[in-house]
Amino acid sequence: MREIKLTKEELLQMKEVYTEIMSYASSGLFYRAGEKIGVILSKGVSKDNYFEEFAKILKDRGWVKEIEFTEEHVKVKGSVEVHPSKIATCDILRGIMRGIYENYYQTIVKVDEIKCESLGDDYCLFKIRRVK
User: Fold this and answer.
1) pLDDT tens-digit profile of 6-65?
2) Helices 50-60 + 26-42 axis angle, to 10
3) Which of 2, 19, 104, 119 has the fewest Cβ atoms surrounding its Cβ within 10 A?
4) b vs e for 103-121, b when ≥16 Cβ sit within 10 Å of the residue's Cβ?
């Protein structure tokens, strides 16, 4: 599969353009795009070491510097989407988490970012809830 590389600055500038046009509705667009990325990344990942493999994938691809998975939470340090903001900013990563967890549980999940480094928190924290 062919890959491209974006710098953090390029990604944030792209998100800024969408936000200027769509306002905060762009968050949903980034979330859905992240969900698709999570689904694609989950193809072929063994259930045996599923979350360990994803930690490595997300670190190797530059999405995060540190990540810890549990059944109900994902703790992240150094998300590529972090920048000073008045709102949580990790919408693509939140969508990736949804794709990852829905593939693992084979059911619909809801992912909320309840802490964000962009808001001054020490880390980003995503809450995972199974819906069905």
Assistant:
1) 999 999 999 999 999 999 899 999 999 999 999 999 988 998 999 999 999 999 999 999
2) 120
3) 2
4) bbeeeebebebebbbbeee
**Measured at the alpha carbon of residue 99, what is the angle toward residues 6 and 103, in degrees to the nearest 5?**
135
Alpha-carbon distance values, 12 to 8, 15, 95 (Å): 6, 5, 16
Tokens at 123, concatenated: 């880390």
What tens digit of pLDDT does each residue of 71-91 get? Answer: 999 999 999 999 999 999 999
- Contact present, 79 and 124 (Cβ < 8 Å): yes
CATH numbers and ranges of domains, the chain? 8-130 (3.30.1380.20)
What residues pair up with 126 in beta bridges, in sequence order?
74, 113
Q: Decide if pLDDT at 113 tops 90.
A: yes
Q: How many CB atoms lie within 10 A of CB 16?
A: 12
Q: What is the DSSP string of 17-43?
A: HHHHHHGGGHHHHHHHHHHHHHHHHHT
Sheet with 109-115: strands ordered across = 66-69, 73-77, 124-130, 109-115
Scan for tokens 């990344």, then name that residue. 41
